[in-house]
Amino acid sequence: MKFYSTSEKNALIVISLLKAHGIRYVIASPGNTNTAFIGSIQKDPFFTIYSSVDERSAAYMACGLAAETGEPVVISCTGATASRNYAPGMTEAYYRKLPVLAITSTQPVSRIGHHVAQVIDRSVISNDIANLSVNLPVIKDEEDFWDCEIKVNQAILELTRRGGGPVHINLPTTYSLPFTEKESIHCRVINRFTLNNELPDLNQNKRISVIIGSHNTWSEEDTIALESFCDRYNAAVFCDHTSGYKGKNRVPISLAAAQEIHSKSELKSDITLHIGEVTGDYPLLGMAANEVWRISPDGEIRDTFRKLRYVFEMPETPFFQYYTEETSEPSTNEFFEQCTNFLKTVQSKIPEVPFSNVWLASKLASKYQQVQQFILVF
């Protein structure tokens, strides 16, 4: 049997990521704006779909189904005031921490406030209706695709985060017809881990780059944890001055990374571990691998490099200690040596740095230190 689906990419991303995260239960209420979503899944054997004409009843059905199965449940409705009927059931889900995902379809949000029939404003919802509410774009380019992909992953992950609870996705439609034969759409799946989970395997033979943004002061324990990790894995630490990191395997890679005439293919790692916060060191941003693991106590999705695969909601030190204890074999340090040799090669070819940001920094750094010493004296 052939399956036909919408050509609207935001709906296809939602469907793809629901499958990837194993969410199979859907309770659908009739309407027009949710045709792209429901019409694309109604014959898909992956999903188990129930029909409920009344949205209030649908939301309470979802609460019961989520409580009984222990699995997330999707509810889908059309525009106008249909979603308002979800409020009682979503409130129930909020206080019972039930993973109910309300996907409210809508006309383009640009029509809000212009007296367009059946268009309401869902940009602000009550505090105790959902743990998270996201508004998806109508996809017109790669930027929209990335934005939609991230928001859907974020919404799905929030269903079970910190005890779980309901989440809201606002899904606009362009009423695109006809449906066409189902095409596969590739979406990046993001998973989140805590210290209570079994963490994914990390192959000791893979080349690993650790990219550090601005960072709090490093304690001795923090530094030792990262150094020990690098001793066990083929890792190099890429950082700028705002990272404050002075430990082993440190590679101040920016000068080398900024050289467009030099091939940096040998500096390509298999996995990048991203820690710290914002960095304005733009060459450093280009050094990420095709797979990025983000480690941070906040556990938020920060897709700085647009290659995020895993988020580890934990401090960095337990993360590095966990993987260090997973293997007793020392590392060859081959990747770190390649990076430092490349940096030395670049530096040897630039004996006199020309007028540039680097030249200005070299001249101002000593002056800045003198000013600091002067201030300390007084």
What does this structure look like?
The protein has 2 domains: 175 residues, Thiamin diphosphate (ThDP)-binding fold, Pyr/PP domains (Rossmann fold, 3-Layer(aba) Sandwich), CATH 3.40.50.970; 142 residues, Rossmann fold (3-Layer(aba) Sandwich), CATH 3.40.50.1220. It is of the alpha/beta class and 378 residues long. Helix 6 packs parallel to helix 9. It starts with a strand and ends with a helix. Strands 9-15-14-13-10-11-12 form a 7-stranded parallel beta sheet, sandwiched between helices. A 6-stranded parallel beta sheet has the order 3-2-4-5-7-6, sandwiched between helices. The chain is elongated and about 75 Å long. 34% of the residues lie in helices and 18% in strands.
Q: How much helicity do the residues have?
A: 25-40%
Q: Name the CATH superfamily assignment of the largest domain.
A: Thiamin diphosphate (ThDP)-binding fold, Pyr/PP domains
The SS-based structural class is alpha/beta
According to DSSP, the number of beta strands is 15
Features:
34% helix; 2 domains; alpha/beta; Rossmann fold; seven-stranded parallel sheet; elongated; 11 helices
Give a short synopsis of this structure.
The protein has 378 residues and is an alpha/beta fold.
List the helices and strands and how they pair.
Elements: E1 4-5, H1 9-20, E2 25-28, H2 35-41, E3 48-51, H3 55-69, E4 73-77, H4 87-96, E5 100-106, E6 132-135, H5 142-158, E7 167-172, E8 180-181, E9 191-193, E10 207-212, H6 220-232, E11 234-239, E12 250-251, H7 254-257, E13 271-275, H8 282-285, E14 292-296, E15 308-313, H9 316-325, H10 334-348, H11 357-377
Helix pairs in contact: 1-2, 1-5, 3-4, 6-9
